[in-house]
Amino acid sequence: MPFAPIAKNVATMAVQPNLLDYERIRADFSWEEARAALDGLQGGGMNIAHEAVDRHARGPLHDRAAIRFLGKDGTLTPLTYGELQARSNRFAHLLGQLGVLPGERIFWLAGRSLLLYAAFFGTLKHRSVFCPLFAAFGPEPIAQRLERGNARVLVTTERQYSKKIKPLLDRLPELRCILLVDVDADIDQRVRALPSLLQGCSEQFTIPPTDPEDRAILHFTSGTTGMPKGAVHVHNAVLTHFITGRYVLDLHPDDIFWCTADPGWVTGTSYGIIAPLLHGVTTIVDEADFDAERWYRILAEQRVTVWYTAPTAIRMLMRTPDTLRQRYDLSALRLVHSVGEPLNPEAVLWGQRVLGLPIHDNWWQTETGGIMVANYAALEIRPGSMGKPLPGIEAAIVTRLDADTVRIEGAEVEGELALRRGWPSMFRAYLHDEQRYHKCFVGDWYLTGDLARRDADGYYWFVGRADDIIKTAGHMVGPFEVESSLMEHPAVAEAGVIGKPEPTIGEIVKAFVVLKPGFTASEPLRQELIGFGRTRLGSAVAPKELEFIDNLPKTRSGKIMRRLLKARELGLPIGDTSTLEGSES
Ligand code: AMP
């Protein structure tokens, strides 16, 4: 451990942490008790929207701001729990009027907007399934997800619709309705104006019986082969959101919480929407993208107490002068959390020095639905470690022996991070891909695809991905998806895509391209291919670097050996090449 641990002194904390004695709470923990802390629906069942919104709207929090929405233009619009209940009720009615059935998929492609919250909870109240998409995706990733997710309704903006969706309509016969958030009149029978439709809907709605195992949310995540995987989550996931809100985010009734994640990613829903509202706190939503000065101003002016952000953003803040931060009063802030990529120990210490608070790293993924390993307010931080498993979660470092067995490793041994199956927010399926889902489990364990180790005191340390998935600015990018898109260009015979380490955003997407006969590598062609990727895939997914190469290294079975491309790029030893095409034995 090259960096000294950061001790915590609970006696000097303004607010006593919810998790004071980690070992005791872990030993006594039961998910049944967590369930008992929530309402449940009258007559049984569990619905996330009831727990996060209606439960509070019917009580003393009716007039409390659930959301403070900060517009790009500097406006501040509060939305109370009571208003959120009424608006989500209208949306639930609208889905009924449109003939949408429970279980059908409602997609969101409209970034951060106040309507998001009405649409999200309205969808859950109607017992349909909500699927958020990242607004910066290009047409190809959008089309694939809408197709694969059998989108029934898409909520989007006029701009997204005319730029990206309209040309795709023929590919999407199941998409029967497109609701535009920012137009006053319907365009045709299929493309309708959401605000005016909502005007005509009642504000009263009773949530029908909802089985805790009913599907609620669908999140797409990237795979190394094949197209993106749709991870399915159920209403019972709310137990994990509630417990992580209590023990990791450490939410208390008067907190002002800010999660900076985009609503298109799982953090944006689990922690940008659900967890803070479950705890009845006020949550900040900023319509604008990252801007260091704006972010410090928001933290100061909104008196944010608990802040959940990501390593890329923290590293961008680290690049600004400390004098910028010193212009803002951050005295309300008491906890800072980070997720999504490895958090460098330097960033934890930077937090301590510049924000006056260390940064608490935590680990989870789309499939886990909620935080699984974390640093806690009252527990010593070991800079560079992801922390310890959540109470109620059993984690282990394992080695896969065969399809049915793993070996559980001891302290300080590197292996795959695994979680004992059965926690409430565990994904219940990859949509239309049962085989792939089952492959994630070995016996009682869910294998995460991440390599890690545990130290003798139970802290987990991230080592790397076991596969070729790229994390760029916190976004998962599947190399296969990028390779497939590049290959649609007439000059491209083959492409191999890797993540190339970059100090601020973690990794950049880099493509190696083999040209078809008759095409010659040139700078204009390189630029053309980069532009082609950006138009099809969007800036978050497209390669930022592209290099021509004569041949791609492949296995004998024809799979691209991205590991080799990466080793060559970084000048590292190329390791085991026994399966390389053309190699001996
Ligand atoms: P996603 O499914 O997009 O949320 O991405 C999940 C993946 O991001 C994990 O499997 C890890 O590879 C990576 N990740 C998330 N949090 C952390 C963290 N605290 N440290 C290192 N990697 C992380």
TrEMBL record:
Protein keywords: Acetylation, ATP-binding, Ligase, Nucleotide-binding
GO molecular function ontology, one term from the record: acetate-CoA ligase activity
Residues in AMP-dependent synthetase/ligase domain copies: 56-431
Classification via PANTHER family: ACETYL-COENZYME A SYNTHETASE, ACETYL-COENZYME A SYNTHETASE 1
Top-rank lineage group of the source organism: Bacteria
GO CC list: cytosol
Enzyme class: ligase
Gene Ontology biological process terms in this record: acetyl-CoA biosynthetic process
Residues in AMP-binding enzyme C-terminal domain copies: 481-559
Native organism: Desulfobulbus propionicus (strain ATCC 33891 / DSM 2032 / VKM B-1956 / 1pr3)
Protein's name in the database: acetate--CoA ligase
EC assignment: 6.2.1.1
Entry keyword annotation includes Glycoprotein: no
Keyword ATP-binding: yes
